[in-house]
């Protein structure tokens, strides 16, 4: 069966940075995101006995080796094991925005892959199961199964069965807008997965960051439900800066920003002083969301 799926990217308002179980992609902390209307991935998956190996076509380019290919094959193996099949697959996936540039391409990518691959393999998963499956490819992908405002719960169980995303409020709950600024389309030298592992291992302030996250989650969750723009904006911006503080103090330092990043940060601060209420957030990359 050949199946095509579309999933949208999401940008975290309360960030996740660090895993407690890298294999199951279980996070050190919960997170809250907003699913983006304009950034998405389209993925087509076909399992077929005639395929001798898994085929990956990413943004029009066929890959047969490398990290991205290996991650997709590992994910397909999870789907095959779950569905009880052995056929190899052809995966064609395309983003309508820059890949690996701090715009959560892995979130929409693995969410679309989870949707298409599970259906192509004959599985009929509910949203909770899809979120858990997508998480196995990329943690943030668990949040791209839902629209609107979404919370990925940390969970406590070792098997990860309680670590999945749920919708806090639908898209039409609140007229909340986010502008994505593209200051660089280059792939980052240190991908998020490797970067967060290094932060957990070497940052002296990482434990302090974790101690503040639950309070941030509560503030943004309540702010979304109450449509309190100031509470959501102030908390999200500060949470972002705290996360980047752990990156900067990682050994070796993870500095994803460039001069244009700083220019937009200062512009947002200046606009606020002039009476325009707006806030910024930045993921593991130079691109700023306002």
Question: Which short descriptors sum up this protein?
Answer:
7 helices, diphosphomevalonate decarboxylase, two-stranded antiparallel sheet, alpha+beta, 2 domains, 290 residues
Overview of this structure, please?
One of its GO terms (biological process) is isopentenyl diphosphate biosynthetic process, mevalonate pathway. Belongs to the diphosphomevalonate decarboxylase family. One of its GO terms (cellular component) is cytosol. This protein is of the alpha+beta class. The protein has 2 domains: 171 residues, 2-Layer Sandwich (Ribosomal Protein S5, domain 2); 98 residues, Alpha-Beta Plaits. It has 7 helices and 11 strands. The radius of gyration is 19 Å and the shape is globular.
Question: What fraction, in percent, of the residue positions are helical?
Answer: 25-40%
Overall mean pLDDT score?
A: 93
CATH class of the largest domain: Alpha Beta
CATH topology of the largest domain: Ribosomal Protein S5, domain 2
Assign the structural class, choosing from mainly alpha, mainly beta, alpha/beta, alpha+beta, or little secondary structure. alpha+beta
**Strand residue content:** 15-25%
Question: Cα-atom Rg, whole angstroms?
Answer: 19 Å
Outline the fold blueprint.
Layout: E1 2-14, E2 19-21, E3 26-27, E4 31-48, E5 55-58, E6 61-63, H1 67-83, E7 88-95, H2 105-120, H3 127-137, E8 149-152, E9 165-169, H4 192-202, H5 206-226, H6 229-248, H7 259-273, E10 281-282, E11 288-289
Parallel strand pairs: 5-7
Antiparallel strand pairs: 1-4, 2-3, 4-7, 4-8, 5-6, 8-9, 10-11
Helix pairs in contact: 1-2, 2-3, 5-6
